[in-house]
Specification:
homodimer; alpha/beta; Rossmann fold; seven-stranded mixed beta sheet; 7 helices; globular
Chain lengths: ~210, ~210
């Protein structure tokens, strides 16, 4: 099972690493990290670099494609090389997925025209402007395209995908393997459940960070 | 707030990236990735490299220390350079933390002697052999030391730490910022709740991967 995860400068690391940690445990999984320029790709805060081993042209027909988000997506919305690659791998993929603002890239590539999709709650208007129909759900599937909500949603998205690809027993084993028995300290990890003052706090602070 | 995350060869990426994604959003956070040999550090499956920017001797007095796990911890259990560094930074840290089998390194450094600690459920015997008192909880605090259970527990651990360091409102804003409203597809993300056949499946397959 060939899995390709796109990296780029100013990405959000957990968007990529959450799905990686799950999907790399699929039977026969081979995960490649791919970028326009192979080498270290820095997160939006410059504090961490994830290494892309392969260039776009070296990744031709992965079965699963994962597009993470991050403020770096914005400068790629008109990047012909990236969008062409997304369209090309999507044409033969079994599953094309995104996490957080990665869905903006799928939309910019024309893959979400008129389709329901999700992404980070702060980016829903942009998602709509790019032709998708934003839905406030954690995971949205339309055919072979699965979009996930913000950052941490990639773990849930990938576990569901694992169940589709390898069956529920294997997916459950992966969940136990990564000991995913989440105990968030607060209610309110979504915009629908958070207190309004926390929502406003995040909105004010976000300032183009997602 | 200076935060140091140790990297090493054959680490588990989410152990490091989960806490990073939370702690990097603390007010004034500066996260450094540090390793015995700076440069790319590969995960246990070789599929991903995280970049360590700093050498051990360049990171002297971080306020928060995070030790991730992975099968690579085993060859570090008698690594004087790593264990000395852990002891040294712990002597001035405000918080010393671990995720997954990172607690084995804290124990090997002598920090957990006679203290309650947690880690990946498959490594509890090793943790006991190294002098700690294993506890089957997702997060265990003893003074300024906080240990987390396997892999994904680092997110929960870091959010709790964020609340201690910056207050609950800020931590809640971080939780909403990374949209941490987990929806695991299965019950049974812990060894206490998983069906016995899934536990045995993971035990058989784990084969030294955590």
């Amino acid at each position: 099972m060939e899995i390709a995860i796109l990296l780029f400068d100013e990405l959000t690391a957990l968007d990529a690493v959450g799905p990686y940690e799950v999907l790399s445990r699929l039977p026969g999984a081979s995960v490649s990290f791919v970028a326009a320029q192979p080498g270290p790709q820095r997160t939006e805060n410059r504090m961490l670099a994830l290494h892309a081993d392969l260039a776009l042209e070296q990744v031709v027909s992965p079965e699963i494609v994962v597009i993470p988000g991050g403020i770096g997506t914005r400068s790629l919305l008109a990047d012909r090389q990236i969008l062409d690659w997304i369209r090309r791998v999507h044409s033969t993929s079994l599953w094309t997925t995104s996490v957080c603002t990665g869905s903006l890239l799928l939309a910019a590539a024309g893959l979400l025209d008129g389709l329901e999709a999700t992404g980070h709650w702060l980016a829903m208007d942009t998602l709509a402007a790019l032709g998708a129909e934003p839905v406030s759900r954690r995971i949205v599937q339309q055919g072979k395209i699965i979009t996930g909500a913000g950052v941490s949603a990639g773990i849930d998205m990938a576990l569901r995908l694992a169940a589709k690809v390898a069956g529920p027993e294997w997916a459950q084993a992966i969940q136990l393997g990564i000991e995913y028995d989440p105990q968030p300290p607060f209610v309110g990890g979504s915009v629908g459940t958070a207190p309004p003052e926390i929502v406003e706090l995040v909105r004010a602070r976000a300032n183009g960070l997602i």
